[in-house]
Amino acid sequence: MLTRLLAAAALLPLVIPAQGLFTPGVKPFIRIDAPVIALEHVRVIDGTGAAPVEDQTIVIDHGRIQAVGRAGDVSIPDGATRLDLANHTVMPGLVGMHEHLFYPSFSGVPLYIEQGFSFPRLYLASGVTTARTAGTLEAYTDLNIQKMIDSGRMPGPKMHITAGYLEGKGSFAPQMPELTGPDDARSFVDYWASQGAESFKAYMHITKPELQAAIAAAHAHGLKLTGHLCSIGFREAAGMGIDNLEHGIIVDTEFIANKTPDVCPADPYASLAKLDANSPDEQQTIRELVQHKVAVTSTLAVFEDAPPLQQRFVDSLSPDALRFYLTGRDRLSDAARNMSKMFVQKEVEFERAFVKAGGLLAAGCDPTGNGSALAGFGDQRNIELLVEGGFTPVEAIQIATSNGAKLLGLDDQIGSIAAGKQADLVVIDGNPVSHIADIEKVELVFKDGAGYDPAKLLDSVRGQVGFH
Ligand SMILES: [Zn+2]
Hints:
Shape: globular
Low-confidence stretches: 1-10, 16-20
Structural class: alpha/beta
Number of helices: 15
Bound molecules: zinc ion
Number of strands: 20
Strand content: 15-25%
Radius of gyration: 22 Å
Oligomer: single chain
């Protein structure tokens, strides 16, 4: 009896506030809350790839962009809340296309801990106003977090949830389900579509019959399927009708000699060193991806094992997570560091060639790997790495905003700055065109016209990442 009572008590929330959990809602994090707002004298990078324009005024009316144009030409409605933002840049909210609400546990069995509290806040604080998750280990949690954000019970980006992983046998991750064949793949897709999942993610050990069944089922629901593949090559997957490929060419195993069909090779990166964006082989893959309209998601930040260690990163991690992270980072061998650099370099070369050939490239942070790419911060780092790799700042911002919106099929609503679009905007204290790292100087984040204070959001997750 006692044990039964204790077991029951263990399931009760420790604190039950009078008005339910998460009573603070979003109000404490909103600095600008007005029906009509004018952002005056700003530099606008509109997300479409167009050159930046100086001294603009953006009028926000009830969550939508009502007007954008030269300061002085745009009429500002009476009673508008006016912000003089000279020397600031406004760009669209980031559309993160490879986001997760989980973070590695660092040691023992490879488990990933749901960060349903801290990650939505980190994404929003970093300017990510729309987040497509790219796989989950707690699908119900992700779907419920999405509802909590949408109903204003907690701050976070607008979420588009991808179901759990469509994984075959042999996964390294014990939290993932293992498909038993094409019928299983079909019922998995049908079930999670019925629960509100908006897309699907095939993983490293899926077989061709399972992938084919999953793609057909997803498309029958009008939904998209992406993949971090290994058992199946990019050209094969493109031919099968996949919509999107995560991470890019460096996870493509089709260049590995004598690869067994449907099997993820023991060393999936065996051909990394000889990858060459100008080689006929890689060019052929690029042509086939473009021809089949397969988008690619850039996740450069997750491949960078030892980025500059930032104070905001240190401040966000829980003491244990920080200790585990730093220990692992200190132990990185020179070989591992060099490999990490090669990953980023080979991948960004592919991404430039892919975009040049007309491919749709989006971006996301993938907060996994060795823990370096944190939610939100990793999205910003990704943009910096795209620029270091040869994209212009305007191109990199387009990849991280309107390209993601296009891939989501929401580019008429989000991803760029124009009259009629949702007022999802990032106000930067600086100029990312001349100094891309300014992208980290987020002063305000507008989501549907509400101006969130990034400092308050970051403060609220101090020492929490890794814990929840
Ligand atoms: Zn991922």
